[in-house]
Amino acid sequence: MLSLLPSTARTLLARTARAQRDGRVPSLVAGVVRGRDLVWSTGRGEISEPHDDVQFRLGSISKIVTAITVLRLRDEGRLSLDDPLDRHLPGTPLGGRTVGQLLSHLAGAGSESPGNWWERTPGTTLKGLGLSDADVVLPAARRFHYSNLGFGLLGALVAEVRERAWEEVARDEVLIPLGMRRTTPRPRGRAAQGYAVHPWADVMQIEPEHDAGVMAPAGQLWSTAADLARLGSFLLGDTRGVLSPDTVEEMTVPAGVDSSALTWSAYGLGVQVQRVGTDPARPGPVLVGHGGSMPGFLAGLWVDREECSGALALANTTAGMDSGLTTGLLADLRAAEPRIVEPWKPSSSPVPLDVLGPWFWGPTPYVLRAIPGGLLHLGGLGRPGRSSRFRARPDGTWVGLDGYFAGETLRLDAEALNLATFVFTRTPYDPAAPVPGGVDAAGWGVHP
């Protein structure tokens, strides 16, 4: 198992201790993941040992597990992200919205379920919610609108297709295979009591705990630091066959945001995605994970896939914990013990070398490179430009993975690259290449 330097551990402990004291958190557990291991953790406040085996309520971190159960169905061919909800779960006012829109909070579903405050009162069935057109608050795909209701519906979809309760599917298909045996729908064994701390006095009040019913997939799960670290390892690539690495990568792609911007916050498929940092010369890392809150509990799990590290925090308070604790722990770890990457090694290029190198989109210079993983990268040469990675298809074409050309087909030729109707040539507007619209016979020169 990996370990941290004593100086790094002290820095992490100091940040966590301050967060517990300043936030007046009854008990707080924090930890750091590297690769597959929880390499550091601590418990502060009224927490018994071993602190990494005490259950806390995860709140919306449960949505990651729900998304995994849905994507397993997609990968099995049981559904498509473009399927309307009513194809698999008929009888709701959101039946025309797609599975993918619900996963990325783009379906326009209401933020909460109708009726009593679902986080503080016993739950009901889907029929018991009594959904109506009032629970459709925005047009589809118009804007991001966080929806607990949407994830309740996704859990109901999983139960309908699997013909089993969502909790059972999550346990058997996700939690047990990932080694998360201390993650349960209700508290079991050693578990923290949830509290609200008075805003103006150092006194506390017990918060209620209940079965959320059909809303459970939005925030029901309880877990420990050790188990939450395993979920972090999953997001870092240790999938243990629960999902393919390609599907996990798909989960982390932000929907509806310009990911080349300096800072941004977005949502993928069941996960939050954000770029942190404000230095234009050194763009900050992209973090993937989720926050969580329920009455009496706050939680956070964020991973830096580039650094192969993650951080988590679990607290038994309704409000007060520093929301930047986990990202701060990651920043401390990056500064104190940056990841040492694997050495570069030569490898055979997946494409003929004669198609690599400089190309021109009209007069704009680009360069096509072979990059690790058998991929190609097309990006601006010496100046910003549209940038995308490409993966080979069996038919000899390449498909865009990200950036402007995500999903588009790239066709390679030694004389021209064809991409989304654009033709890239070896020289600016090469007259010998099939440039759309043709090339003026007078060529380059000084024109009146």
From TrEMBL:
Species of the source: Pseudonocardia yunnanensis
Protein name: Serine hydrolase domain-containing protein
Superkingdom to which the source organism belongs: Bacteria
Keywords assigned by UniProt, alphabetized: Hydrolase
The protein's enzyme class: hydrolase
An example Gene Ontology molecular-function term: hydrolase activity
Family annotation (Gene3D superfamilies): DD-peptidase/beta-lactamase superfamily
Glycoprotein among keywords: no
EC number assigned by the record: 3.-.-.-
Residue span, Beta-lactamase-related domain: 15-324
Matches recorded under InterPro entries: AmpC-like, Beta-lactam-related, Beta-lactam/transpept-like, DUF7586
